[in-house]
Amino acid sequence: MRRSVRPRRGSVLVEFAIIALVLYLLLAVTIEFGRIMYSAQATQQAADVGARELSKTPLPAGMTFEEALAHETVRNQVYSEDYLVLNLTELESQLQAGETVTEYLARKNAPVVNRMLLPIMIVDHIDDTTTLLRYPGRLVRNPYPHASAVIYPNAEANSGHWYVEIPLVAIAADGTETLGPTVQVFEEVKPTGQPEGPFRVNAASVPEWQRGMVALRINYPYQAAAMVAYPPQPNYPPEPNVNQEVVADPDAADPRFGPNAGTDGLGRLTAMGKEVRPYRKVLTAQAFARREVFQSPTP
Known about the structure:
Blueprint: H1 6-56, H2 65-69, H3 72-77, E1 85-87, H4 88-91, H5 101-107, H6 112-117, E2 122-125, E3 131-134, E4 138-142, E5 161-171, E6 177-183, E7 186-188, E8 213-228, E9 269-271, E10 274-276, E11 278-290
Antiparallel strand pairs: 1-3, 2-3, 4-5, 5-6, 7-8, 8-11, 9-10
């Protein structure tokens, strides 16, 4: 007696659906964790180089970290927030034939830390006419006193320039987002509860053995393109965390989709018929170096 193969065909479809879901999860985890490891390594290398270069830059002994970042030598050679947002639309006219942005910045002797951060920057189309290559985070357009003529050739004619800040986000158990304070991409590591860091040699609020130290932190907001954010669950496991995605808040100012979309750069994805937030992790790379060179006092 011949058996029917129809039930078997139906079971194959069910098996394929289950296996495909598992394979997708494995593929997404592999890709995203590979990206996050690459981003963490690139950020750490940039922090190491930044701390070393700052320790060897001749600056006054009594200068604070914030004053050092505004110093012309540091801005030209080590790090400048002007290079966190590159206007590719404007740069097209300045590139030589076949020249890449990396080669262009090397030709212009851009700060070394900014060049090291270039591989982990993202392309962002903010409108139909402007394309940016920028550091992830909240894109802010604001007049800035240190605008670089290399990146912004029409700086004086523009009303302001783009730069980046990183908002910290707290997610409640129900998935509600709360925007906390913002942090800078390039900042000093300060002792807990102290208003001043160890960069200044005669910093009174810092122990003597810590003074004259470059304590550098670089923050990088990693946003996943294939993984969804979930609120913390006190009973997980074993209580399942499925169908409790962090839902993206409606943002009429920027209705685009993508891992870094939205006015705060938190991203908006589609999963299971919902507009959700991608998995997010603010990576922090720290580096420390003793200051070795000081500027000679003015006679």
